């Protein structure tokens, strides 16, 4: 059977992608950001997941105001690279796992999550920067990817509670796939950041660290009730990206074991946060 072996959360700041692509990761401003991913790179090289379900948001790169899916699942064999800002990154195309993706789509929809099914899509920094942070600069990405795109760009985004429930439904879907696959779920975006207006550059390290604390404990469920307005007030207009972390966290179940944590301020306009969690029920052989 397929199983979810771990969850990863990470910011997906586009300037991180540009820094990697331009060979500047050793610069003093950036070195501490990347140092927090050294452990993660080594860990994932040993974990060797077959498939990663990457929960991310498109930033008006592939979608625009004509179509705004709340929750979308990529069921394609491959995804091209696109981006805003610096433009498409020079990274390998992203290879999908259509069989598992269609299975998850069916399971979610019959489980009453009305997903948008996407068969053709390019992916932006929301998905490619986490891949680069975890895998560096390989010729080809060493995992298959199932993109789950969440609307957090145009009001109204989904609630944290609904995101958590979607994570639980993803876990049920993966557990009912008959092939033996090591699957990870990644939640991307965050942490506190605001990119425009008088509060541009807002960072709330205290709030971010409380969020990281709760994500890492068996009390993570309390995060389900944070209202949109709290993300907006406390973490800036783009802090709402953190609801995507709750999809990953919901997929792991109540009990988790934290394996790694990193927090650094600032990177571009944004606080960098990163967590690696193990679902506790499946970790008995690990520790
Ligand atoms: C920045 C962060 C983001 O998450 C994003 O999508 C775009 C820009 C930033 O910090 O510059
Ligand atoms: Fe973003």
From TrEMBL:
Coiled-coil ranges from the UniProt annotation: none
UniProt cross-references to InterPro entries, sorted A to Z: Xdiol_dOase_suB
Residue intervals of the Extradiol ring-cleavage dioxygenase class III enzyme subunit B domain: 9-272
One Gene Ontology molecular-function label: protocatechuate 4,5-dioxygenase activity
Catalytic EC class: oxidoreductase
UniProt keyword Oxidoreductase present: yes
E.C. number: 1.13.11.8
One family name in Pfam for this protein: LigB
Keywords: Dioxygenase, Oxidoreductase
Superkingdom of the source species: Bacteria
UniProt xrefs under Gene3D superfamilies: LigB-like (3.40.830.10)
Protein name: Protocatechuate 4,5-dioxygenase beta chain
The species this protein was found in: Sphingobium subterraneum
